[in-house]
Amino acid sequence: MSIVHEMIAKRAAAELQGPCVVNLGIGIPTLVANYIEDDVVHFHTENGLLGVTEVGEVDPNLVNAGKLPVGEKAGAAFFNSAESFGMIRGGHVDVAILGVLQVDENGRIANWAIPGRNIIGVGGAMDLLVGAKKVIVTTTHTTKDGKSKLLKECTFPITSTRSVDMVITDLAVFDVVEERLILKELMPEVTLEEVRRRTEAHFIVGGLLDEHPVT
Amino acid sequence: MSIVHEMIAKRAAAELQGPCVVNLGIGIPTLVANYIEDDVVHFHTENGLLGVTEVGEVDPNLVNAGKLPVGEKAGAAFFNSAESFGMIRGGHVDVAILGVLQVDENGRIANWAIPGRNIIGVGGAMDLLVGAKKVIVTTTHTTKDGKSKLLKECTFPITSTRSVDMVITDLAVFDVVEERLILKELMPEVTLEEVRRRTEAHFIVGGLLDEHPVT
Amino acid sequence: MAVIHEWVQDALSDVKSGQTIMVGGFGLIGAPLTLIDGLTRKDVGGLTIVSNNLGEAGEGLGILLRQQKIRKAIGSYFTSNREVGEAFKQGEIDLQLLPQGTLAEAIRAGGAGIGGFYTKTGVGTELAKGKEERQIDGVPYLLEKALRADVAIIRAHKADTLGNLIYYKTARNFNPLMATAANLVIAEVDEIVAPGELSPEEIVTPQLFVDRLLVAKKVLTKEGVVNRA
Amino acid sequence: MAVIHEWVQDALSDVKSGQTIMVGGFGLIGAPLTLIDGLTRKDVGGLTIVSNNLGEAGEGLGILLRQQKIRKAIGSYFTSNREVGEAFKQGEIDLQLLPQGTLAEAIRAGGAGIGGFYTKTGVGTELAKGKEERQIDGVPYLLEKALRADVAIIRAHKADTLGNLIYYKTARNFNPLMATAANLVIAEVDEIVAPGELSPEEIVTPQLFVDRLLVAKKVLTKEGVVNRA
After folding, report:
1. In the predicted model, is pLDDT for residue B118 greater than 80?
2. Which of A153, B190, C212, D121 has its CA 20 to 30 A from that of D152?
3. Whole-model pTM?
4. Is C101 helix (H, G, I), strand (E, B) or coil?
5. What confidence tens digit (pLDDT) does each residue in A121-136 have?
6. Domain membership of residue B32 as a residue range
7. What gap in Å lies between CA C126 and CA C148, rounded to an integer?
8. Across chain C, what does the average pLDDT equal?
9. Chains A and D make contact, 3+ CB pairs within 8 Å
């Protein structure tokens, strides 16, 4: 993962305060755990473990949702997939941090399918969207060829009609309030002008815009 | 319990052959376990135990559905009430042996409510009726005041639209085939005439009626 | 993630009149006797109780019934306390009777974000009245709605300080289900241990479900309900 | 109550062409690798596979795919084997995609005699197409039907000779659910012990669900799938 990804993950980690249960998606979200030292932040992985921690000795049967080896901390618990998604769907997971393909200007996301490509999988994405109390999206602001991932409308199929709560990119942080994107922070050395130029979605500039929150 | 009850229970026990999972209701059915020595008959109690055996040291937190102390045999397992009724409703219990208030001539039973009395409870009766592969009813043939419990129609609310498979009383044993009662056996020293006299429900006399099956 | 309370009234501090409260147990077996006792000493009323039974006459939830703190009860077997029928006849209490498996499944559904489910149980009986019947693959089912509560009071065997729970024999029953289906979950236990002392494979209720812990002061013994030494 | 088999083909003796087969595992983790290998060596075709994934390209269920023995797959994440998409484009296979939680819940429902259930997951998305939407207490839900199978092949850690099962870490996943939802349930395990050696409190799958047992000969290690010494 790049420095850009690490920066996004670090910013997302700052949102995890106090006792909470957090589900981390594949990709950038996985990195978030590296920036959490607080013992009361508990990581849930939907393949059946609450209490994920960094991998010690690799065990091929102890993995996260990305099938990467993980560790279990003291007080961890294993459970089956129906129980795991009962936790998610039932509103017992406080925060989900997810990667996305696209975000629309109402804060709805597309992260499970690309029409025409052999990507036929949804996994736990839709369950996390309807179930997690708070959903934070972490993503690069633009695609590899420079197109905004924050669009007026998603061109890929949406994951849920529910809007996420926060969008964290390498350029900026947006709160989603009443289905509108509110620019809340600029990442270091990023200007408002640059965000405007590289964002297709309409957004509102927040009143207390902080240009350099991450040090 | 009386000798009559014991006789009925003993006859029901003879139906439990080979590996099977059996749920025993409250009352006469509870006695059935006393006549089973076969290690492959496993008793299920819907409050959360498979592998019920006779009580050893009394433990107030180890009970059957009648809240009577029981024991657990080697290979027993405990589970919660949703799992327990998943077993029942999902068709994983081979035989349920139940007490009844009334049986109609289609083999449907009433065993959970008496209108006008303060009996407001259904417990697991309806689940067992829809879920158990085979349902055997054990009951005295008549009420204390001599009225037939095998009626043309139940006057109490029925437990299920499903007919039971067998009715064992102190007078006779009936198979239920295509929603008809077929008299299969007479209990010792009971005549067909007596069964006719004390049974309101219409029944068919089976071709191979055995008058003294229990020795 | 749980907070450990020493006093039952602190554990019950957010219980209010008019709330729906799930109460674990099959009769007195696996019932949270200390927390029930706390409720009998607390000035609350108009409660809706979700529990398999309403205790026994003058025992467990039966005391709350005598105190007329219960406005409505949802359960499967009220017969074990004959005073329930009397109260019902007098119009002092509303009752909603569900088959035991439907009750358990509805609580599980409430905890798992399932709005309702189709069960074969009860089709064509008095308990089907007012419920939608529907054929699925040619088999008739009834629609049953999920149950949730403001508060669940439950009984477990051991907890760790995070709130992970294990249960004891047939005292498990409805407790793990109710632990998932209420906004505030309070568990009374025999013992609280350090995280890591319970095997991660044997934990029945993971800690994310549990808000408050209390060590049981009233326990069921062969001699009945006694205060723990 | 289980019968113990020494040979995988004996354990699979009643598997027939055209059947629906549930296969445990999350990718290769917790997949019944010995039984899958047995299926690849068995003359069956036209199978419907219910499994979270179809293995990986040329691994696990991915071999069955290459052998064109799979007519239809029901799962949540086929992306882990890109050959699935190719086969789908070529019209060689039908796919039914479900959210992972809906897949798990549908299997559980099938095992528990629940005909269908209402879930919030998927409402308003492409995966809601053709499904009934319904408001319950003002919230929109989708109706999802239960899933059942003719055969389930699953992976557990230990069994006792009766068929009680416990699992190992995240290799648990779909296995305990599938153990409940098929007419014939075949489990492969690391070890078979005497009844009583597994604690009655820690058993995850009680023996009434399990028909056949087999000791695993192919296992997942850090070095990939290997034959057990």
Report:
1. no
2. D121
3. 0.97
4. helix
5. 999 999 999 999 999 9
6. 3-210
7. 24
8. 97
9. yes
